[in-house]
Amino acid sequence: MRLIPDIIKNRFIPDETNIIFDVFQQNFTDKPIMVDVGACKGDALIKFLKQNWSVHAFEPKDSNYNELV
To answer: Among candidates 37, 30, 31, which has minimal Cα distance to 56?
Structure first.
């Protein structure tokens, strides 16, 4: 079995939440709204909340939902 070099294992993976936020922020200026369907534990919506966006989060899995509320 060939081992994957450490450089590949530890590669940089960008946080897609920041990328999405930056794109949306450029296009929405008045009362922005974020809808997070499958919100899991809410990691993706935090940045939007901190910037005073109106956020609507939906999570069907009970254990994740309980961490959201």
So the answer is: 37
